[in-house]
UniProtKB/TrEMBL annotation:
Upper classification of the organism: Eukaryota, Fungi, Dikarya, Ascomycota, Pezizomycotina
Descriptive protein name: FAD-binding domain-containing protein
Length: 493
């Protein structure tokens, strides 16, 4: 009997907690009144439920945070007020920009406050034409289009729907990194609201240690409300991008990855060339095995024949080629706002491994694990991304917290399935086995790109194995976020 009443007490508590919390926090009129626009607050129990759900929806439904309130901030002051309010109420908070961060630790935000940055999406090019100032909620696709319309470009990433600031915080890989370095390398200065609500500027001259830290470990320190970035003229020879996809059956795997290694080894690696090698299921092409798709992007009117000839020689099942512009490259990857790569609401599990070269035996083992996934996972893909690294490697490795300038390749399964908690553990097991297979032939320890990180990696795997890096990050964490308010994305511990 005592057991039953405790059980009922716990059930009642579980049901009532969100309601009680929303009474305590969500509908706090004096907090809402401090915003210019009453519609800035979204609640799970309000008539605007759809808006609340849309604002909460994430690229991965697995490990999702839950909110009792989402504040759609429009100014830096509103970000400050919301953080101070969350501190007073001892409630966790999470910045929401593109909503694509899928690391498992974001799911530890329970009954938290979402600080939605969608209304902070303006940008302008400075009068000297050398930099753009963007607000904290600007999306990657919007930045590409805005700059392109002004004859400019910078290091932008491969998906329109992803926020631009969050990638910077972890480094930021993309199309033009061979020419300009990482997205983080474009940052000239940023305004940051810290855990205590103070807004500060960071740059090479103002708070330089923090400026170093936010370019690689930046999710740990504050909310970026605006950033000044380097931009560049689009030269006439850079206006076009050639995009080709080649579809192969799996028996070509060894030859394809050997070919990719040859490109990586080439002393004259083109700055504007990117390759993706992708495993996917397409029973029309091969009912028994995943297929391999090779995507090549080249910033010019066409891809030099020396790179396509070996691919044609392997008798692809299908080839599709087009010429486009920088925005069109994302479209080619199905990564515009309405493209399948951006689709929200599925559950996804990644297990990233960064490498300097493909070990072909390991790739085959990873392929075999991928090939054996149950049919509920047949919308999954396994990605190997090879962005040009010319300029990334030239920049002083110690100048930012990004720890892997020697890395040349990003590999990860993207296990994709309809939300179903019973599949989460299976997805994790599969992704573990793929990660193990990929590492087997690598002589180095696990290196995982923080923006793809799963959440179970060691501090060293995501922030670097050189002891000074973690020592510095830990010191800065203690100084700027002593109570761990920014501990929900790859927290420094
Ligand atoms: C389809 C897809 C394509 C991708 N392509 C690339 C790519 O080409 N290159 C690459 O490097 N990465 C890429 N990524 C990884 C991407 O960098 C991360 O998923 C990133 O976290 C997404 O940022 P977001 O703003 O969309 O997500 P969110 O979930 O909104 O943000 C991610 C994290 O950053 C925090 N955050 C967001 N905005 C701010 C801010 N202004 N200040 C402080 N913290 C903030 C959030 O609180 C959260 O912890 C891709 C991811 C996906 C899903």
């Amino acid at each position: 009997m005592a057991y039953l009443s405790i059980r009922w007490f716990l059930i009642t508590l579980a049901v009532l907690t969100p309601v009680l919390l929303s009474l305590r926090l969500g509908h706090d009129r004096s907090f809402a009144a401090s915003f210019h626009d009453g519609a800035s607050m979204l609640y799970p129990d309000s008539v605007d439920l759809k808006e609340f759900e849309d604002a909460s929806l994430r690229w991965s439904a697995a490990d999702s945070p839950t909110y009792i309130m989402i504040v759609r901030v429009a100014t830096e002051v509103e970000v400050q007020r919301t953080i101070l309010y969350a501190n007073r109420k001892r409630t966790p908070f999470l910045a929401i920009s593109g909503g694509h961060g899928q690391t498992s630790t974001v799911g530890k935000v329970k009954n938290g406050i979402g600080i939605h940055l969608g209304r902070m999406s303006s940008m302008y090019i400075d009068t000297d034409g050398q930099s753009v100032v963007i607000q904290g909620g600007v999306r990657n696709g919007a930045l590409i289009s805005y700059l392109w319309a002004h004859g400019k470009q910078t290091m932008t990433t491969g998906c329109d729907c992803v926020g631009y600031i969050a990638p910077i915080l972890g480094g930021g890989h993309g199309w033009l990194q061979g020419r300009y370095g990482l997205a983080a390398d474009q940052l000239i200065s940023a305004r940051l609201v810290l855990a205590n609500g103070t807004a500060i500027e960071v740059s090479q001259v103002r708070n330089p240690d923090l400026f170093w830290a936010i370019r690689g470990a930046g999710h740990n320190f504050g909310i970026v409300t605006s950033a000044r970035l380097k931009i560049y003229d689009v030269e006439p020879s850079q206006k076009q991008w050639a995009a080709s996809s080649f579809v192969f059956t799996h028996d070509k795997l060894e030859s394809l990855f050997a070919m990719a290694n040859n490109i990586l080894d080439s002393p004259n690696r083109p700055v504007g060339m990117v390759h993706y090698l992708v495993f996917a299921f397409n029973p029309d092409v091969d009912p028994n095995h995943p297929i391999i798709v090779v995507w090549i992007y080249y910033q010019a009117a066409s891809i030099p024949f020396q790179y396509t000839r070996p691919l044609y020689a392997l008798s692809p099942v299908a080839v599709e080629s087009s010429t486009t512009d920088l925005a069109g490259v994302n479209a080619h990857l199905y990564a515009t706002d309405d493209g399948v790569a951006c689709a929200k609401g599925f559950s996804r599990k990644l297990a990233p491994v960064s490498l300097q070269r493909y070990d072909i035996g390991s790739i085959r083992k990873a392929f075999d694990v991928f090939a054996g996934v149950p049919s509920s996972f047949h919308n999954s893909v396994m990605f190997a991304e090879g962005y040009a690294t010319n300029r990334v490697e030239e920049i002083d490795a110690n100048s930012t917290a990004f720890p892997d300038r020697a890395g040349k390749l990003l590999l990860s399964p993207i296990l994709t399935y309809l939300p179903n908690a019973s599949l989460d553990a299976i997805a994790e097991d599969i992704s573990n086995r793929i990660r193990d297979a990929l590492l087997e032939g690598s002589s180095s320890k696990l290196v995982s790109y923080v923006n793809y990180a799963r959440g179970d990696e060691s501090m060293e795997a995501i922030y670097g194995y050189e002891p000074w890096r973690l020592e510095k990050l830990r010191r800065l964490k203690k100084e700027y976020d002593p109570f761990g308010r920014f501990n929900y994305y790859a927290p420094i511990s």
